[in-house]
Amino acid sequence: MASLGSPITIIRPHLIEFGVGTAGKLGKWADEKGYRRTLVISDAFNASRIDVLELKGEVTVFSEVTPEPDTANLEKVLAAANAADAELIVGFGGGSAMDLAKLAAVLAGSAQTLHEVVGPNKVHGPRKVALAQVPTTSGTGSEAGIRALVTDPATKAKLAVESLHMLADIAVIDPALTFSVPARTTAATGVDAMAHCVEAFTNRKAHPMVDIYAIEGTRLVGKYLARAVKDGNDAEARAGLSLASLYGGFCLGPVNTAGGHALAYPLGTRWHVAHGAANALIFPHVLAFNTPAAPEKTKAVMEALGYETSENTASVFDAAYAFCAELGIEMKLSGLGVPESDLDAMADDAFAIRRLLDNNPRDLSRADIRSIYAAAF
What are the pLDDT digits (tens) for 129-167? Predict the structure, then answer.
């Protein structure tokens, strides 16, 4: 864990609009900036409601974003971006739409290819277009960050691009846009937001400047997630989750996630399990595994979620598992259709994600990962 004086770089979108009914502020902002041609990148559902953004001028909509987008989906987005010749690109949807918007903003009209920018700080700037992010789920926190992920179908690996040039000029977080999210998705994406906070809080790179967002984001999920799952129109609960997701995004930039996300990724890339659902299933296993390396912080996490636990790993596992299971989340790999014969390949994939595993407070060997998958099966 970093000390108070350890160097850290904090990154935020230049402007953040937050609150119920704020979606239309995007159109006002774009109009004031003089943007006349806009490309909105979204999935089919969100494409049907872009009127809430109140965008003026020429608006082109790309509505074919897929969950866990791959390089083929990105190619389609880039073709649409080049054709639209937009001055403003808007990511409107979940993390997939927002990540593709980031990549379109830096790659459309650029001489660089995706494979040339994979990794940290490889994008040549400055960016030619403005970028706005409008989340419609409470999970990824992608609106606040500088990373974008797409899957390479050949290797089944996530390609991660990180660049300050992918930071949004404006993020508009309107909890009203999340009212329509189904209960099951609300539960899984809420745990994803919490996982961002918890993994940053217990991380080897954890920093007091980020801890404050991490523990508060965790507390917001503990307080509001069950309420939002029960009643999707509970405006206060939805706003609490939108804020938790934003705080999780704040944690991702300087600290990032760790073992939990590394073990969740193969479920998405190999078996197309939704990212939030994969994280929720893995969450109690990795939290319990990490407890001996971060006992006090783990106790604080469980208290923020409303559970009193001892420093005993079984006690942490049981409480974390109960928190997820009570939300109606599927907590067994077999229940998600993952075959037992694939656990070895999944363990290989997860063990290779060093950019996250190296942040984990306790070393996760390949054997540890394989045994966690077996326990989760």
Answer: 999 999 999 999 999 999 999 999 999 888 999 999 999
Q: What is the mean pLDDT of the chain?
A: 96
Contact (CB, 8 A) for 123 and 161? yes
For strands 147-152 and 157-162, give the pairing. antiparallel
Identify any residues that bridge with 150 across adjacent strands, giving them in sequence order: 159
Span 280-293, pLDDT tens digits: 999 999 999 999 99
Question: Distances from the Cα of 361 to the Cαs of 130, 217, 294, 295, 298, in angstroms?
Answer: 38, 20, 7, 11, 11
Question: Under a CB-based contact definition with an 8 Å cutoff, are residues 141 and 249 in contact?
Answer: yes
Report the candidate in 129, 223, 126 with the shortest Cα–Cα distance to residue 165.
126
Q: What does the DSSP assignment read for 125-190? A: S--SSEEEEEESSSS--GGG-SEEEEEETTTTEEEEEE-GGG--SEEEE-GGGGTTS-HHHHHHHH
- State how far the alpha carbon of 161 is from the alpha carbons of 44, 103, 106, 148, in Å: 25, 8, 11, 5
Q: Could you give the angle at the alpha carbon of 12 between the alpha carbons of 360 and 1, nearest 5°?
A: 25
CA distance 251 to 195: 10
Cα gap 330→315, rounded to integer Å: 20
Please report, for residues 153, 154, 223, the alpha-carbon distance to residue 213 in angstroms, rounded to integers and kept in the order given.
Answer: 35, 37, 15
Structure tokens at 121: 């700080």
CB neighbour list of residue 358: distance below 8 Å, 6 or more residues apart: 204
- The letter for the amino acid at 183 is A
Q: At which residue do the structure tokens 């290779």 appear?
A: 352
In this structure, what token pair is assigned to residue 257? 């996630």
Mean pLDDT by 10 residues, the chain (377 residues): 88 95 98 98 97 98 94 96 96 97 96 96 94 96 95 91 96 98 96 97 96 98 98 98 97 92 94 92 97 96 93 93 96 96 97 96 98 98
Distance CA 346, CA 310 (A): 31
